[in-house]
Design a protein that fits this description.
Layout lengths: L6 E3 L4 E3 L5 E4 L3 E3 L6 E3 L3 E7 L6 E4 L4 E3 L4 E3 L4 E3 L7 E8 L3 E10 L8 E6 L2 E6 L10 E10 L3 E9 L9 E9 L2
Parallel strand pairs: 6-11
Antiparallel strand pairs: 1-2, 3-6, 4-5, 7-17, 8-11, 9-10, 11-16, 12-15, 12-17, 13-14, 13-16
């Protein structure tokens, strides 16, 4: 999994590079006595995505776990790109605060001539099917509702996006997946 860097400002004690609604805990001790901080032990970083106050869950590309051969995070586009293999997928671990129905939206770009790839969005046990549309270029991003998923219970859920066919040039450049409560 490629994670965004987390920077600690030792003078102010602040963290940067931590997304909103993300929890971080450190199981390491920091020693400032020698003048240069040294860390004993590995930090325990919880990359689980938590819902905003209205229950919306936003899963940015930078926090995706990319599984496969070609798909990877492109920082300059803030998206998962180079997604040319139908066996590649991306996943996020989220915490759902309440069960119910959620609109599932994808923010993506897809070059003309490369649209038409069927994709499956799994939200726990629920499955939403969608077809990637052409948006103009690999940098022309749109947000489109793919469908509705019903989450049976609150708690930990894995959200996965997988192509279900061979892409033309590529599946899409995926910037984010959003789950928005319908009620």
């Amino acid at each position: 999994m490629v994670s965004p860097p987390v920077l600690v400002n030792y003078a102010s004690g602040s963290l940067t590079g931590v997304a909103p609604n993300e929890t971080m805990s450190f199981a390491a001790s920091v020693n400032f006595a020698a003048g240069t901080p040294s860390i004993a032990g590995a930090p325990d970083v919880d990359m689980t995505i938590h819902a905003a106050g209205d229950g919306t869950l936003t899963m940015p590309a930078a926090q995706a776990q990319v599984i496969g051969e070609t798909a990877r995070y492109e920082a300059e586009k803030d998206a998962i790109g180079f997604w040319t293999e139908p066996g590649d997928s991306v996943s996020w671990h989220v915490t759902v605060d309440r069960p119910g129905k959620y609109d599932v939206a994808l923010t993506y770009a897809c070059s003309n001539g490369s649209g038409g790839t069927p994709v499956e969005i799994r939200v726990g046990e629920a499955v939403v099917a969608a077809t990637v549309k052409e948006t103009g270029t690999w940098s022309d991003f749109i947000t489109e509702t793919a469908g509705t998923a019903e989450v049976a219970s609150a708690g930990a859920v894995v959200v996965t996006v997988s192509p279900k066919g061979k892409p033309a040039e590529g599946v899409m450049n995926l910037r984010a997946v959003t789950l928005r409560p319908t009620q």
